[in-house]
Amino acid sequence: MNELIPLMVIVPMMAALLLSAFSKYDKLIKALAFVVALCLPLIPLLSNYGLHYFGGYEPIVDNITNIVYHPAITYSFDFLQQIFIGAVGILTFLVVFIYLTKYKKVSGPYLFLLFMGTAAVTALMLTDDIFHMFVFFEILALAQVGIVAASSIDYSYEMALKYMILGSIGSPMMLLGIGFLLAMTGTVNVTDIVAIVHGGLLNVASPVFLAALGLIFFGWLYASGLPPFHTIKSGIYSKAEPHGAALLQSFTVISMISIVMIMFRIFSSLPIFEVLIVLFSVLAMILGVSLALMQTDFRRMIGFLAVGELGFIGLGIGLGTQFALTAGLFQALNEIVITALLFIGFGAIVNATNEVDTRKLGGLLAYHPKVGIMLLIGGLAMAGVPPLSGFQSKLMLVQASLSCGYPELSILAIMVSIATFVVFVKTFYVMFLRPKPHDLEVVDKEVPKAMVFAMAVLLIIILALGIFPDIVTSGISNYVGGMLL
């Protein structure tokens, strides 16, 4: 067993507890937070691929059925987990770095929430246990509520409370669905459940099995922010601090793909499963960009665009082929990076103007050209403009839709990308290019260097993935191919 695998969860979790316990010692928690955040992207890079069985309990073979049972909670670490946990680790470091440099006195409880959320999504990516998944799904939801409530933005408490109330509906439904699976299979290990389902030992047409799909699917919609939860998901982004929103959207993407990949392994034999995924993904694409067009608050605009981009991810997964799944997962990686850049960049604008209404902004390119140019590139990447990373993943999704015999989905994906381009170009023009309103006061100070550094790092990743997509797509394709066998 690889002992580094559980450290990916244990390190940020222990750091969260220590930061909260020693929150009175400002210098100590600053140093601890920085060092741990710096280590987070390194652990997955240094770890070997493999499995980790907690408690050392190895799998057991049933001599009658030849089915392998996994009595222990199992973590599985492969290329897919490596790139996504690494991406979240990089983003956590950048967010913590921005936070530590922004405030003279930092909050231990707030850092606790950032690191605990990172630990939760890491566990979601690694776990092969569906109940273990639910436990960290709940921890993640509470961390997200706390990050929003801890912000200094007006009505953040109200938005956090709304999200928590909806979670009190979605989470029990998911748990009930997991309970149904446990009742039918006698196990919560995903690999064991898959073996039972594909081995013909369970009637997939059973009403209980279909009910389990419906309940878990509803919980997944809440976690991912797809309709009908798209409004509340964009809302929590707009009510969090900009650096917090950058991390929150990565939590959403990771929870979305980790849960849906588990569902795909269990329920893919049901034709209705892929239909549901595509249906709600298409709704997210249309509603996301349509609502973004109507926003004057650029934080809500980015929030709705982020929801629309989730639809592209779901589209690839719903099509279900190896190439489509690869495209969807590549799109997920791109969204984490691109949307983080946009949230941080627009956060710099808020820092300089104390204004979020695009109708009251203008002429900012003269004051902050670096931020403006990086935001422009990030927006073009989200819209799918070549040679940026968003173009590569969206091109793959268009090709996947065509190869699956759904040209209408390809046309829709292109139209939504064009609409995203229009939304962003319009917003960029009114904020940066048109004459500055006379009543707009731009704070005469530089954008925090930590923000510029974070945006530059994310921009380099966007350019690298756009020019050399095979860096990740070949590994993702191999992983997906192995899963589909």
Summarize, please.
The protein is mostly helical and 485 residues long. The chain has a domain at 271-485.
Could you explain how this protein is built, in words?
The protein is mainly α and 485 residues long. The protein has helices spanning 4-21, 26-39, 42-46, 79-102, 108-126, 130-149, 156-185, 190-198, 207-224, 230-238, 242-267, 271-293, 298-319, 322-353, 369-383, 389-403, 407-433, 449-467, 470-484; strands at 50-53, 60-61, 68-69, 74-77. The protein has 19 helices and 4 strands. A hairpin with a 6-residue loop joins β2 and β3. α7 packs antiparallel against α9 (207-224) and α7 (156-185) crosses α10. 52% of the residues are buried. The model has no long low-confidence stretch (mean pLDDT 89).
Q: Class by helix and strand content?
A: mainly alpha
The portion of residues forming beta strands comes to under 5%
Please provide the count of β strands: 4
Terminal-residue CA separation: 24 Å
Strand order of the largest sheet: 1-4
Described by the principal axes of the CA atoms, the overall outline is globular
User: What's the gyration radius in Å?
Assistant: 22 Å
Let me know the largest β-sheet.
2 strands, antiparallel
Give the helix level as a range of percent.
Answer: over 70%
Along the chain, the helix and strand elements come as HHHEEEEHHHHHHHHHHHHHHHH
State mean pLDDT (0 to 100 scale): 89
Unreliable spans are none
Number of helices: 19
Main location: membrane
Subcellular location: Cell membrane
Transmembrane segments: 6-25, 32-51, 79-100, 107-125, 131-151, 163-184, 204-223, 244-266, 272-294, 301-323, 329-350, 371-389, 409-429, 450-468
Domain NADH:quinone oxidoreductase/Mrp antiporter transmembrane: 128-414
